[in-house]
Amino acid sequence: MLLTTNKKELAMKGKLFRGFGDPSRLSILDVLRDGPLTVGEIVAATGLSQPNASNHLGCLRDCGLVVAEPNGRYVTYRLSDDRVGDMLALAESLLADVARGVYECTRYHLPRQPEIDR
Predict the structure, then answer these.
(1) Among 70, 81, 97, 88, which residue's Cα sits nearest to residue 31?
(2) Is 54 exposed, middle or buried (0-12, 13-18, 19+ CB in 10 A)?
(3) Has residue 113 been placed in a domain?
(4) Who contacts 43 (Cβ-Cβ below 8 Å, separation ≥6)?
(5) How many domains does the chain have?
(6) Quick check: is 10 in a domain?
(7) What percent of the chain has pLDDT over 90?
(8) Stretch 73-95: mean pLDDT, rounded?
(9) What is the 3-state secondary structure (H, E, C) of the chain?
(10) pLDDT at residue 1 tops 60
(11) pLDDT bucket at 118, cuts 50 / 70 / 90
């Protein structure tokens, strides 16, 4: 029974980290660290398209990482918990120490950068 509980807990942790595992979602979470923003403000700050940002915000909202609050004609999004920002800060701190290994890791692929016109 302990093994089953451990598998369920690990599966839940995996789902949590999927929220942090996409660069677009990370960029949204990162800009929300400074405070609540509307979709338009998130789009301007991240460079994501409006439909893409809205899709990722829906995912983050469904996962409980952000909260949507109606504000007149607009909806304002904010981090659901200060610990979300704390996790991002901890990830930055850890990455500063292990960046070379992460960069050189052949098992995880970074998104390809567009080639510069020559």
Answers:
(1) 88
(2) middle
(3) no
(4) 49, 50, 53
(5) 1
(6) no
(7) 64
(8) 95
(9) CHHHHHHHHHHHHHHHHHHHCCHHHHHHHHHHCCCCEEHHHHHHHHCCCHHHHHHHHHHHHHCCCEEEEEECCEEEEEECCHHHHHHHHHHHHHHHHHHHHHHHCCCCCCCCCCCCCC
(10) no
(11) very low
Whole domain around residue 31: which residue ranges?
17-104
Are 75 and 38 a contacting pair, CB within 8 Å? yes
What number of residues does the chain have?
Answer: 118
Determine the Cα–Cα distance for residues 7 and 18; give it in Å rounded to an integer: 16
The CATH number for 56's domain is 1.10.10.10
| Spatial separation of the C-alpha atoms in residues 14 and 17, rounded to whole Å | 5
Over residues 25-79, the pLDDT tens digits come to: 999 999 999 999 999 999 999 999 999 999 999 999 999 999 999 989 999 999 9
Q: 116 in a domain, yes or no?
A: no
Look at residue 12 and tell me if it is in a domain.
no
Give the pLDDT of residue 3.
65
